Amino acid sequence: MTRTEKRRVWLGLAFASPWVIGFLVFTAYPMVASAYYSFTFFNLVKPPVFTGLANYERLLADDKLRLAMANTIYVTVLANPASLAFGLVCALLLNFRVGGQALYRTIYILPIVMPGVATGVLWRWLMNPTLGLFNTILAYVGIRGPTWWGDPNWSKPSLIIMTLWLNGIVTIIYLAGLQQIPKELYESAEIDGAGRWRRFLNITVPMVSGVTLFNLITGLIWSFQLFTEAFVISGVNGAPQGSMLFYSVYLYSNAFRYLKMGYASAMAWVLFFIVLAVTYVTMRWSSRWTHYDVTAGG
Amino acid sequence: MQSAAAVGTPLATARARRARRKLLASLGQHALLVFVGAFFFLPWLWLLSTSLKSLKQVFEVPPRWVPEPIMWENYKMAVTAIPFFLYMRNTLFISFVNVAGTVLSSSLVAYSFACIPWRGREKLFLFVLATMMLPGAVTMIPVFVIWRRFDAIGTYYPLTVRAFFGAAYWIFLLRQFFRGLPSELFDAARIDGSSELGIYGRIAMPLAKPALATLIIFTFLGSYTDFMGPLIYLSEQKTWTLSVGLYGFIGTHSSEWSWLMAAAVLFTLPLIILFFFTQKTFIQGIVTSGFR
Known about the structure:
A: 298 residues; MetI-like fold; globular; B: 292 residues; mainly alpha
C-alpha cells in the first residue's frame, strides 16, 4: 500500500470507528457473554457458576415455557396470514381511483404512530365486555359479544384483531407494490377475457409476491418478539390463565423479575435459533411463490 | 344523465349507461372504504369520547357516544394524577439525545463507506449489514450486566449512549444516499484542500437532508414509544418516561378509564401532529424499507 492508501484506510476507519467500537461493546462481547451465561447459574448478585447444559435441560421440562411457546406459535401462525391478507385488501381499497383517498389513507395508517403502551390500554378498553366499543356495536345488531381479554379462548384472537388495527406498515408497502404493477398487464388480460378474480390471482398476487415475502419476514420476526401490548394488557403472567404469556414476556420475567440470568440467556439463544430457522425456511419456501421477473409473473 | 337518456340516440344511451355504472362503481368503492375505515377510525372516536366522560358516565350501559357533560377536567386530572409533564420532559430528553446521537454517528460511518475510498470498506460494510440480523434479545442481558457494573442502572446512559455508535439500518440508508451524490462535488472540495471532516460537514450533510429527515422521524418515534428499555432500566419514578408512567398509571387507576384515555390521548398527540406534518417523508421512509 502506498502512503496515501494507508492514510485513507486510517481515515476511513476513523470515520467508521463509532460503529466498530459500538459493535465490539454492545454486540460482539454481549453475544459471547450471553452464550457463556446460558451455561451457568447466574443471579446478578454472585458471579456466574458454570452448570453445563442444566439450563437447556430445564427448558425442555419447563411447562410455562411450553405454554409461552405454544401461545407465541399460535399468534405467529394466525396473525401473519391475517395481516398479509388484510393488508393487501386495505391496499387494494386505498388504490381505488376515487376522491378522498388522501383522507382514507391517513385514517387506515394512523394507528401505527400510537405508542405500544397507549395502544394496549386503549384496546383493553375497546374490548371491555360491557362498556367497550366492540360489544357495544355487536349489541346494536343483536349479538352478545364475548368477554375478549377476559376469556382464555378469546384473548389471543383479540390480540390478533388488535394487530390488524396496527397493520398500516404492511398496507403502505403493499400499496407501493400495487402502484408498481404495469397497467398494460391488466389491460391485455382483460382483452384475453380474464375476469376480475382471475386478474387478481394471476397478476396482482404474483406481482406483489416480493412485497409479500418482505412483509412476511418482518411480520414473523415481530410476532416472535411480541411484548409491549401483551404485557400492558395481560401482565407478566399473561392473564387469563396464562393464555397471553408469550415467549418474550416469559423471558423478561425470568431475567428481570426472578433474576435467572443464565436461564433467560438460554431462552434468548433458543429464540434466536428458532427465528433464524423460521426465516431460513420461509426464504427457501418463498422461491416457489415469489416472482421478480415481469414476464414470468404476467 | 337523464337529459342524455331523453335524447335517446343509441350512442347517448350507451354513454349514459356507462356513466351510471361508473358512478355506481365509485359509490361502491366509497362504501367499502368507509366500512373498513370504520374499523380504523372508531377506536379513535371511542378513545376521545371516553376521555371526555365523567368517571360515572363511563359505566353507563349502553355507552353513549357524546359525553354529557363534556369533562375537559379529565385532561387536567391526567396530567396531575401522574407527573405527566415530568414524564414528557424525560421522554423528550431521551428521544432528542437518541436522535442527535444517531444522526451524528450513523452519518459519519456512512460517509466512510460511501465517500472515502479505503481498502476493506466493502467487506466491513457487508459485515455491518450482516449484524442487522442479530437479535436484541440475546444481547439484552449482558448489556444490562455491563451497565450494572458501571453503576448506571436508573440513569439515562443505558437508554442513550448506544445511539452514538451508529445503527446498521441508518448507516445503510445514508450510505446509499451519499453514493447518489455527484462525486465531482467531493473531488473539487478535496482539490481545494478541504479536510474529509470539512467535506462531510459542509457538503455531504447539508445535501443529505431528505435522508436525515427519515432517520430523525423514525428514531424519534422509536425512542418516544419505547417501553422495554425504560421498563428495565428506570427504577426511580422521577426518571420515568411516558411509556412507563402510563403503565404505572394503569396499575394505580385501573378503573378510571376516562383519565387513562385522556393520558393516552396526550401521550399520542405529539406523534399524530408529527405524522400530519411529515406524512410524505414518513410514508416514503416505510416504502424504502420495504423495497431495499
